Q: What sequence folds into this?
């Protein structure tokens, strides 16, 4: 059912002729399996995105990384 609704949405977007929607429509076309997977399994990548945000904030706090080994060590001791 979700696949059918997504296909109808995509057709409606194409029919409007708005070029501004082409980018998002192409992105959805390329990733439709991952998008529809949410409706099948109710699974998201929210935890991975949250962890990525924590790493970026940690890196920004120290204004970059000079010693990669030490940075990875600190990440594992703090977030593992």
A:
């Amino acid at each position: 059912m979700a696949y059918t609704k997504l296909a109808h949405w995509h057709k409606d977007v194409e029919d409007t002729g708005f070029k501004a929607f082409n980018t998002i429509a192409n992105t959805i076309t390329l990733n439709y399996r991952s998008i529809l997977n949410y409706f099948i399994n109710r699974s998201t990548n929210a935890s991975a995105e949250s962890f990525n945000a924590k790493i970026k904030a940690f890196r920004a706090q120290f204004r970059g990384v000079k010693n990669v080994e030490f940075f990875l060590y600190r990440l594992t001791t703090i977030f593992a």
